[in-house]
């Protein structure tokens, strides 16, 4: 007990005893002199211990003064104690539970490969060793720790897992309240703890009790500041953005970090009290549960009413909270051991829940933590209300915008349809006119064509008669000689067959033109019927023959044999428009010898492809997506209506369930029309 009597006073500032300055100086000098004299009279071994004790206390005192970070102080103290006592492990447990039912290991030093205790929670239940420590001021030295009387099964498992054989421990107490435990563990052997070691640990405990108290005060102040900061952050988020997802993510991340919990989620109710996790923030290694539809079949309607009225539920241990088996098993599936639940309630309904999960162990939720989560639940309700209102406004605006765009598109379509009807009516009128003219020409030509045969016979008969009269007559009458001089009867006799042959060719040409006109108009074939598409191409070419330049080269590749079911007059209009555009493109490039290529093939079963290709200047990629739009044209004003290709698109795609596309890369343009052999088939 001599060393204990010589222990120095705590180096923390002491209250002013109001002694005169001179008296204090004399007293300090006297005490210093006495201490020096007493130290000089110590045995060398005792002197070494005294120096070691002073060094250890000074180091710990320095750590306490240099930082308010409890973990730094405790880690340094554990290291110093471990080196001084040469033990297997030093653990410092801190009382952070308001109910005082467990301690958490906040500092640790260990040698070799011994199991770490850092971060683990040590319950006070069935642990008489801790109860005895917390009920006495002096250290408790145990040589055979496993034989300590009354240790429960859970505590024995913990001790065996840590490999503790001997322990020297003491409770740290501040103002009569225990705030921690210092434990020195010997794991490689049983150890007798000396009185000097016990006295030294007692001196350290008085220093650490102050450090733990100051750090806890600082931590509580900082936690309050962090709570205020988090609330301000979320409030600012609500004011600065109406993006609900951003607000909710900010909330769960901040709550989990502030509460140091394993998982924080926002649970939204669906129909029949099923729900989904809409936002989650978690700590590894706990698995995510975000996105899954979670049906809590144990959730009752009366529970919802309680939460709607503001119920907050803090469950420290789901197996000891009186929950029914169904609900406890549901939480077990989520690997939850403790949780804190606050409502997110709207004025007229319960939107969801803000929940903090503790998965690795049970947990006592403090009043500050409960109040924080409750305030955040109110903020979430405000954020969701504002976001939903904003979304309704956005949806209404989008709906009105869509209606306006639909109305504009409808007006544009009506205008295009009107123009196409006018164009179609013009083409129909033109077709009727062409058919009528062709009919009249054909009637007259038929009269001429039918009589040319007889004319040729009559002329031959007359020629034969003249030859006979010429041979029979002894002399030519003067009137005949005079007529011969005027009209050259010999030339008429020799040229008349050529004249009649030319008339025959002209009549045949008229008949062919009339047939092409009738093939193009096809007014007698308004319904769909199988046709040979090459005939339509040829009739369209003949209609545009007057536009052919002498240098134009036309290449034809007709390889398809199948007849296509279609509306012939409409398909001919498409061919006419595409060939007409191709001739325009060729004419706009006079420096190049014009070439027009017409192809028909069968690229797929039951489909026919028609290609009309020119070697004009081509179509720029920027406008290729617009060429089938109504009223779009690149021709000068008065030269084009912008309805030709639009009409082609309507006839092929909507009228015949086909396809039309444009290929133009650099020079030249190719339009490809694809038609099903039977209308209504799809590729």
UniProtKB/TrEMBL annotation:
Residue intervals of the Histidine kinase domain: 471-679
Annotated keywords: Coiled coil, Kinase, Transferase, Two-component regulatory system
Coiled coil stretches, renumbered: 390-424
SUPFAM superfamilies: ATPase domain of HSP90 chaperone/DNA topoisomerase II/histidine kinase (SSF55874), GAF domain-like (SSF55781)
Reaction catalyzed: ATP + protein L-histidine = ADP + protein N-phospho-L-histidine
Domain Phytochrome chromophore attachment site: 243-379
E.C. numbers: 2.7.13.3
InterPro entries to which the protein is assigned, alphabetical: GAF, GAF-like_dom_sf, HATPase_C_sf, HATPase_dom, His_kinase_dom, Phyto_chromo_attachment, Sig_transdc_His_kin-like_C
Superkingdom to which the source organism belongs: Bacteria
Family per similarity comment: In the N-terminal section; belongs to the phytochrome family.
Name of the protein: histidine kinase
Source organism of the structure: Laspinema palackyanum D2a
